[in-house]
Amino acid sequence: MSYFIELLINGALTGLMYSMVALGIVLIYKSSGVLNFAQGAMVMIGGYAVWLLAETGLPITLAIMLALLVMFAFGLLAERVLLRTMVGQPIIMIVMLTLGLDIFLRALGPGLLGTEPKHLDIGIGMAPLILGDVLTNRTYAVGGVIALVLIALALLFFRTRLGTKLRAVSDDHVSSWSVGISVERAVAISWGLAGLCAVAAGTMWGAVQGVDWSLTALLFPAVAVVILGGVDSILGALVAGLAVGILGSVIPGYVDSLVGGSTRDVVTSVVILLTILIRPYGMFGREDIERI
Amino acid sequence: MFYRLSGVYHTRYSATRQLWPIPADRWQIGAVAVLALAAPLYMSDLYLSSYLLPWLIFSAATLALTLLMGLAGQLHFGFGAVMAIGAYTSIHLARAGVPFELALLAAGLMAALIGCLFGAAALRVKGLYLVMATLAMQFLVDWVIVNVNAISGGAVATLQTPQVSYLFVPVASLTARYYLALLWAAIVTLLVLNIKRTSFGRALVAVRDKDFAAAVIGVNIFKYKLLAFFTSSFLGGVTGSILAFCFYQAVTPSQFNFDVTIQLVAMALVGGLGSVIGGFLGAGFVLLAPIVLLNLIARMTDAGWLNVSTTLMAHIPLMLYGAMIIGFLLFEPLGLAKIYDNARKYFLVWPFRHTQS
Questions:
Q1: Does the distance separating the beta carbons of A262 and B143 come in below 8 Å?
Q2: Which of A108, A273, A277 is facing B319, going by the closest CB pair?
Q3: In this prediction, does ipTM exceed 0.90?
C-alpha cells in the first residue's frame, strides 16, 4: 500500500511539473490557435539560459530572473519572425514550422554548449523528502508548488485587462481587430508568457535531470496533458497534468516489471488516443462547431 | 525553346487528357527514364547505393504520404510506423519461406489493415487532433515492435534480411536492388499520377478542401477517407519493406522511429504537398542537402575560413534540417514543386510573359 501511495504522490508531483510545460502550450493555443510543438525545445533553451547565466557567477535567483527576461524576448522574437508570416496558412504548415523550430533548437543548444548534461544547482538540495513512510524528491515537491503558483497566476492573468484582450483574441481574430485590439501584440505576449513558463519548467526539470537535449522529450507528455485537459483550458492543464503524471507513474510501477520496461510512453500514447476517440476537445476544452 | 506550348494544338479530348499532354514533358520523362535505367552503367557503386537508391525509395514513401496528406488532406504523423509494419511483416514472411512477391503484397496489406484501423479511429477528428492521434499511433507501434521479442528480437536487435529473389532475379547485387527500387518508384509514381485524374482522386480533393461540403454534394467522406488511408498505408507498407530489403538489408526499430516520420512529412512539405514531382524533389532535397552543406562547411573549416568545434559539427546536419523546414515554410510554402512549376511556366510561353488563356 505504501508503495502505491509513493507512486501516487511522486506521480502527482511529476504531473504538476508536466503541467508547467503544458501551460506554455495552452497559453499559445489560447491566443493564436497554434499548437506549439517547440515548447519542449523552449524548455531546454530556458534551462540552458539559466545554466549559462549561473555559470557567469550570478546568484541563482538573479540568473533565473534574467533568464525569464531572455526567454520572454525569445518568445516575442519567435512570434515576430516565424509565426506572423504564417497567419492563415493551413494547420499542417504551422505544425511543421514549430516542429522545425524544435529540431533546430534541439541541435543548436547541445551543438553550441556540448552534449553532456549540465548540472543545475538551484539550492534545494538532494536530500529526499520523507512524509510519513513516503519517500519523494525535494525538487519535485518544489516544482509542484511552483507549477501550482504558475497556474494560479495564469488563471488570475486572464482576469486582468490584458488577459481579457487575450481571451478576446482567442475567440476571434477578425472581431478583435475590429474593436481595436492588436492581435499581433496579443499573440506575441502569449509567446513571451510561454517563454516564461519554459524557464520555470527548464529550471525545475534541469534541477531534476540535468539540462540537455532530453528535456525536449517533455513535449510528448505535455502534449498528452494538453489533449486530455483541453487545448485551451488552463484548469485542464492542471487536472490533466495530475492525471497523466499519476497514470504514468502508477501503471509503469506495476506493469514495467512484467513487460520489460518503458510503459510510460505507452500510457501517454493511450491517453492521447483515448481522449481523441472519446472526447476530442478534452475534459475542459471548448467544443468547436464547424460551419461550411 | 524546346519547351514551347505554342504550336501544340490538341484537337481531341483524349489528347488533352493524357498523362503528359505537352511533348516536351514526354521528352523529359523519357530522358529521365533512360538516365535512371542506365544509372548502374555510369554511376559508381558508392553514389548508386548511398544517394540514388535511398532517394528513389524515400521518393516512393513521400509519394505515398503525399497521396494522403496532399490529395486527401488527412494529416499523418505516423508514417514511419506504417513503413515499419510493412518491413517487419515482409521480413518475417520471407524468413518463413514465403516468396518475396507475396511477402511484399502481404506487407502492404498488413500495413493497410493496421493503418486503416488507426485511420478509422481517427476519422472523427481532423487537423490538429488527427496529427495527435497518428502521433500516438507511431509511439504505440514503436513500443510494440521494440518490446515484443517475436517481432523485433529485442530493442537493439537487428534482423538481417534473408536471401530472396524477385521475379526469379535474386535481390542481392546492388544493381538488382537498384532496379527493384526503381520499379517500385515508377509504379507508385504512375499510380499517384493516375489517381489524380480519376473520380477517386477528385473525391479525395473534395474531401480535402472541405469534407462537409463534399458530403453535401454526395461524396461518402467516411469511405473516401478510409480508402485514402488504405491506399496510402498499402504503398507505405510495401515501400517500408523495399527500404528494408533493398537499402538497409536489415531491419531495426530505429529505422522507422518518429524522426523518420518527421523526415517524411518534411519531404512532402518541402517538395510541395500533393505534387508528384514535388515528392521526388523534396525527398532528394531533404536527404541530400544536409550532406552537401555539411561537406561544404567541412571544406571551409579545413581551409581555415571557419572555426567549428566538433560537437557543433556533429549537430550541424540536424540544425540545417530544422532551418530548411522553417525556411521553406516561410519563403516558399508551396515547396520545390512550385519553384519547378514557375520555371516551367516561364519556358512554356517563352518569348512572351503570359499566355492568353
A1: yes
A2: A108
A3: no
